[in-house]
Amino acid sequence: MSISTTLKSHQKDLGGGFVVHRLLPALARQSVGPFIFFDHFGPIDVAPDANHDVRPHPHIGLATVTYLFEGAIEHRDSIGSHQRIEPGAINWMTAGSGIVHSERTPKDLAGKPHRTHGLQLWAALPQAHEEDAASFTHTPQAAIPVCDVDGATVKVLIGTAFGLTSPVATYMPTLYLDIALPAGRTLALADLPAEAAIYPISGELEVDGAALALHTMALLDTGSAPLLRANGAAHFVVIGGAALDGPRYIYWNFVSSSKERLRRAADDWSAQRMGRVPGETEWIPLPATPLR
């Protein structure tokens, strides 16, 4: 059996009825490779009067990785980036020493019924890069390599797999695959990184004969090559990479190898010293729960 353990999601309401399934961090496992946070949202039928906008908020010590299956998000940040995020693209925002961003519904979708569905992950930065300058990189769908492997459609979002390498630059060995496996077909996952996990988006997926339920992440024993089988057409992602260079502390939207750094970030945000998003006047206040 290639599954070492499974993680079940817990639901979190981000406001306005925008509910996500959160898999990482978990009590049993803080991270998989560099990925220290994993949210799956949707598919959601968004009502015309819904407000799922995320007002300006800060990050340090991590990179946000946004990937959509349906819908669109308008990204703005304090270093001047303004990007419409659409399905199939990878958007990598390095927070480093600090960045502020907002994620809003584009004007052409606001006030109209539409669907939204996607994943947002955080990659913790290696300790040597935790204070790097903030940056934002958009990699459009057309630039993401795709291949057919025994009938499976594999998109190499980040890293290298099946002879293809994504153009998305990372700070450490990282893997992120989007795979569609037709009903009745199988796929062997070989050459996995030191840490890896599978998460089903839809359909009926087996890992070495064991069914993997929706909203459940399977952590893999990467010393073997798990055999995946789709009993019904299955859609899933594979994440992983090299192990982090030590544990991380998390407070709200901040990640660091130092608790003192989290305290400074909290103080800076409360005092509005982390920058502003051009055109924005709102901001999300620091949580009432203090850092311990």
Assembly of the depicted chains: single chain
Low-pLDDT stretches are: none
Distance from N terminus to C terminus (CA atoms, Å) equals 39 Å
Rg, Å, rounded: 19 Å
- The global form is globular
Structural class: mainly beta
The total count of helices amounts to 1
Q: Strand fraction band?
A: over 45%
Mean pLDDT: 96
Count of distinct strands: 24
Helix content: under 10%
Q: Give the topology string: H per helix, E per strand.
A: EEEEEEEEEEEEEEEEEEEEEEEEH
Biggest sheet record: 9 strands, antiparallel
Commentary on this structure:
The protein is mainly β and 292 residues long. The chain has one helix at residues 259-270, and strands spanning 3-8, 10-13, 19-24, 35-46, 54-59, 62-70, 73-77, 82-85, 90-94, 99-104, 114-124, 135-139, 146-149, 152-158, 160-161, 164-165, 174-181, 186-188, 195-207, 210-212, 216-220, 227-241, 249-251, 254-256. Strands 1, 13, 14, 17, 18, 19, 20, 21 and 22 form a nine-stranded antiparallel beta sheet that branches. It has a seven-stranded antiparallel beta sheet with strand order 2-3-4-11-6-9-12, with no helix packed on it. It has a four-stranded antiparallel beta sheet with strand order 5-10-7-8, with no helix packed on it. The chain is globular, with a radius of gyration of 19 Å.
